[in-house]
Amino acid sequence: MKLKYFSMLLSVVGIIILYMISKFSQAPIINISDMKDFEGKIVMIKGVVTEHHLTKFGSQIITIKNENHSATIILEGQVDVEYGDKILATGEVQKYKENWQLLVNNNRQLQILKKWHNGTIPLWQIAENPTKYLNLNVNVTGYIESISNAYFLLVDLEKNHSLIIFYTLSKNFTLYPGQKICASGRFTFDEKNFRYMLDICEENHGISILARE
Amino acid sequence: MLPLFLVILFCIIGVITGIATGLLPGLHVNNIALILLSLSGAIVAGFSFLFEYGISEQFILVLICVFIISTSISHTFHDVIPSTFLGAPDEDMALSVLPAHSLLLEGKGYEAVALSAMGSYGAILFCFLLLYPIRFIIGNPLFFYESLREIMLFVLLAISILMIATEKAKIDDFTKKGKIPAIMGMLFALFVFFLSGIFGIVIFEVPVDSPIGLSSPVLFPALAGLFGTPTLLTSLMTKPVIPKQEIKEIILNRKTKNSSILSVTTGSLGGILVSIIPGITSATGTILAMNARGESDKRQTIITLSAVNTACAFFVVVVMFIILRSRSGATLAAMELISVGEWTTILIPTNLSYLLISLLLGGTLSYFLTLKVGRLFAKRFANVPYTLIIKLTITMIVILVFLFTGFIGIIILVVATFLGLLPVEWGVRRSHCMGILLIPIILYFL
């Protein structure tokens, strides 16, 4: 066979082989705490977004947390992530100023496993381990107990746990005690009053009324 | 005084290295940049005795960059020599094979080299003159790059279409009737472009790993395979009969002088465009420049091509300080090594001024060295053990690919080599292989 046909055949076959290699050889999923053992290696890590911002060079810096360990992801690109989203990132482990980072080459290497608003967390679960959800967006379901202009108290059915929720409500929306609602907001710590709270402060936050059982 | 002396010294060593990379088709300056980047820690340690003389660690890293940039500029001067005498161009010089090689067959190989050196040096001077105008156009206050970014998708699509539509190869394997061979040439160019694009998308998903813990850039085996090894293999297969070469200095009359200035201007502007737009190479810049310039003879073609090549190597350095983005392997390494602060004022940033010294000095030295080496080649090129050197270069590329990217890197190199052989064997432009970067970038902007 002439080289011109031979190279055409082998380049197509070669690309198919490389495609199969890419599908069958995935990088290992590691814990954030084990990153130090994988310097310079391609790995996958997953966790919940606790911080994210863009740099002036167009890349995105995302901090994720998993089991009390945090890692910084440097993404060469931008992904629409929000606080509280669960993500899986594939990239190279690098050390920068004594911190471990994951360098992710492109958007395709970062997957959003679960958007924060796609699941609700019961009050007792937050009460059990509040630091786990600190500064994250969460969805909480419960019953309104007392209301003032700027905040209300959310309680569970047994009234064992309560959470103060700060809000700004639109005019065509009325809340009253006993109503079952789902509140989406940022779970933060109010240092001044020494208490946890849910702050409905961003565009993607809100309150939805649920039908009473 | 010592810092300036060191800059000049590293620049001279870089120029000499550039002669080696230029003369050995397939050994690209990016390979050198990559190796130096990996070894930068060891190099700083090796030169730590300079600390006593007030030279900082950061300055040694600047010196490594001076070396890389001088190598890249010297490479653009000297790569015309193998493309003229062996018909074995690297990707950037691929389009100049026919005019330079045909001059060689007329016994005027040295003239081709001298014309190329003139085009390259003309581009250095032209680019230096345009330093401030381009700075104000691309950056503050005109922000041309920001406007370009908004329409980048259309710019890249237009360039891709232009590259394929201007393909002149005729494929007559199936029929020789009418316009069908020309259409087949374009379709095959499209095929190579898309196949390279698919290859690019696939390899970015393939995990490569260095067996000795080096950083593993997946593009290294891919680009070495697409543009390096096919060139070397072609050189091994090429055994032309070359007539005795005449060595005469070029004399330009008024008409050819004006024509040469036009060639340098269009070529340099093409090269500057390449240094701004991502995913395109000098070969693409050449297509743009040749279209802008219009009809020209083979001598002017050589000047235009060399100007594109050198202007691109010059301006990727400048553009790095204006838009803070790397557009070549050399600047990618430089950005990793030194602090690149945005050039926002009238004053040139300190690190850029060191690199400008290496560009100007490296360019001037390279001009005279290209003429010297070209003369030597014309006289004695029958005695050079080129086959052995080429075999050693192939072996070195394979070893480097294995060390940087492991066994999977070798598979990528082999596949890329077959892909890179397609345009060589079918006679279409090799720049269509840049689909490897262009298609993923176009998809990114979509």
What is the succession of H and E elements of chain A?
HEEEEEEHHEEEEEE
* Helix percent band of chain A: 10-25%
Overall pLDDT level of chain B? 87
Query: Unreliable segments of chain B (pLDDT under 50, ≥5 consecutive)?
Result: none
The structure class of chain A reads alpha+beta
CATH class of the largest domain in chain A: Mainly Beta
With helices defined by DSSP (H or I, 4 residues minimum), what is the helix count of chain B?
18
Total of helices of chain A: 3
Characterization of the model:
The complex is a heterodimer of chains A (213) and B (446). In chain A, the strands form two sheets. In chain A, strands 1-2-3-5-4 form a five-stranded mixed barrel. Chain A has a five-stranded mixed β-barrel with strand order 7-8-9-11-10. Chain A has helices at residues 3-24, 123-128, 130-133; strands at residues 42-54, 60-66, 69-75, 86-96, 99-104, 110-114, 136-147, 151-155, 162-166, 180-190, 195-199, 206-209. In chain A, strand 2 (60-66) and strand 3 form a beta hairpin. Chain A is α+β, with helices and mostly antiparallel strands and 213 residues long. The N and C termini of chain A lie far apart (76 Å). Chain A is elongated, with a radius of gyration of 23 Å. Chain A has two domains: 27-114, Nucleic acid-binding proteins (OB fold (Dihydrolipoamide Acetyltransferase, E2P)), CATH 2.40.50; 117-209, Bacterial OB-fold (OB fold (Dihydrolipoamide Acetyltransferase, E2P)). By secondary structure, chain B is an all-alpha fold. Chain B has one domain (2-445). Chain B has helices spanning 2-23, 29-46, 57-78, 80-85, 97-105, 109-129, 131-138, 144-150, 152-165, 180-203, 219-237, 254-276, 282-293, 298-323, 329-337, 350-380, 386-426, 435-445. In chain B, helix 3 (57-78) packs antiparallel against helix 15 (329-337) and helix 6 packs across helix 12 (254-276). Chain B is globular and about 75 Å long. The mean pLDDT of chain B is 87. The A-B interface holds A 2-4, 7-8, 10-12, 14-15, 17-19, 21-22, 25-27, 40-42, 57, 77, 92, 105-108 and B 195, 198-199, 202-207, 209-210, 213-216, 324, 408, 411-412, 414-415, 418-419, 421-422, 425-426, 444.
